[in-house]
Predict the structure.
Amino acid sequence: MDSPLTIVQITDLHLLAESGQTMEAVDTENSFQKIVEQIHKTYKQIDLLLVTGDLAQDPCQSSYQRVIQTLQKHPSRTICLPGNHDDFSLMQKIINDPQINCDKVIKFKRWQIISLNSQKIGATGGFLDASELTFLNNALEEHPDLNTLIAMHHHPIPTNSKWMDTMTIENSDQLFSIIKKHSQVKAICYGHIHQETEEVIDNTLILGTPSTCFQFKPLSIDYALDSNKPGYRILSLHNNGLIESTVCRLVI
């Protein structure tokens, strides 16, 4: 019997232009480095690392180079996708080697992982362009035999935090319309909300994941920080489509 795939999701790194800079009193680069170190100490075999957006708070050459330098210390297959703070064109130029890049889809024996760009230029909220929705639909139609995990940055469903829910994916109804037609979609994972959430919609897991730096307080009317530690998500993808998922917090 084949072992399940081990997928790790990290999100919302928010690296600044220079090392040592802080945001919300957190050295975001140092926190990211500690998360990556903990992941690789805990899991000797990682089939895919998903980095789901806002790699940089200051999207410049330095911030992206420092992201990839940290990831290359523990090389595993890695896909990065953009968040609202990212410069995706610059990301694609710098984060572009055979192991660590911005590929949109990766296939395994029984699974495919599809990355979608939910960035809306000039806005903090999310939107899926027609090209992204077409890409998703085509990938699902071409491989009905492959269980599918979809990754994106923005949240497609409300979090019940009033300020945060001004930034959901505007046209998430179109996303779910496609998913309803394709039963092989088993889960959606995303970042942006800096907190842990889990819901099930039409037999699809909808998973929000904590940031590698500071966290947002759940169920807040206005912007507020939480005291929870930085985190990441581990997903075990079984050949039969079953998913086991756990959020882990920084302990070092």
Summary: The first strand starts at residue 5 and ends at 10.
